[in-house]
Amino acid sequence: MNPFIDDTDEGWMLTRTEIVVALNEALAWELRAITLYAHYSAYVSGIHRSHLATYFNNEVTESITHAATVRAAIVKLDGEAITERDPTAIPHTSDYLEMLKEAYKTEKNASETYGRILPMIQEIEDSELYDALEVIYFDELRSVEELRMMLK
Ligand SMILES: [Fe+2]
Ligand SMILES: [Fe+2]
User: Fold this and answer.
1) Ligand 1 centroid to 64 CA: how many Å?
2) Model confidence pLDDT, tens digit, residues 44-83
3) Among 4, 60, 77, 138, which residue has the fewest nearby CB atoms (within 10 Å)?
4) Looking at residues 109-133, what average pLDDT do you find?
5) Could you give the CA distance from residue 116 to residue 109 in angstroms, rounded to a whole number?
6) Cα 140 to ligand 1 centroid, rounded to whole Å
7) For the CA atoms of 123, 120, 64, 30, what is the dihedral angle to 10 degrees?
8) CATH number of the domain at 7-151, please?
9) Do residues 69 and 132 lie in contact, with contact meaning Cβ atoms separated by under 8 Å?
10) Using CB atoms within 10 A of its CB, is residue 106 exposed (0-12), middle (13-18) or buried (19+)?
């Protein structure tokens, strides 16, 4: 065992790299959500257009806020934030039910991603970062539940 190597610090470095990778996945997903909701807000048609266009627009704003928080977290960890959205295709439709189903899948994936990130943040004992990301995690969980109710 090399006494000059601080194992604890190395472990922390590894975790930090893993966290940045995971945060970039979350950021890519937020960037996709911004495009998805902006697109659906423009195309949603039928009797539900009025309130769903507003709902989707609010999700655009929320995703922009989430992306900013995640980006700030990556900066804090000295990582490099990605600028490309997640490549998962956004199905084009003007059918609101199809849109809600796609939104549900998107929010579910987002909530799972943040659910995976939180225990990693716990490991580096940064309570400020944990708090900021937990807020997003709860936002995503609320969206999942809201969409589940809309799809009922
Ligand atoms: Fe989000
Ligand atoms: Fe969301």
Assistant:
1) 8
2) 999 999 999 999 999 999 999 999 999 999 999 999 999 9
3) 4
4) 96
5) 11
6) 6
7) 170
8) 1.20.1260.10
9) yes
10) buried
Q: Give the distance, in angstroms, between the CA of residue 29 and the centroid of all CA atoms in the same chain.
A: 5
Ligand 1 centroid, distance to 5 Cα (angstroms): 39
Alpha-carbon distance values, 43 to 29, 54, 56, 112 (Å)? 21, 12, 11, 28
89 CA from centroid of ligand 1 (Å): 17
Residue spans of the domains in the chain: they are: 7-151
Ligand positioned closest to the Cα atom of 140: 2
∠ CA 90-146-82, rounded to 5°: 40
**Mean pLDDT to the nearest integer, 13-21:** 89
Q: What's the distance, CA 85 to chain centroid?
A: 11
The closest ligand to the CA of 67 turns out to be 1
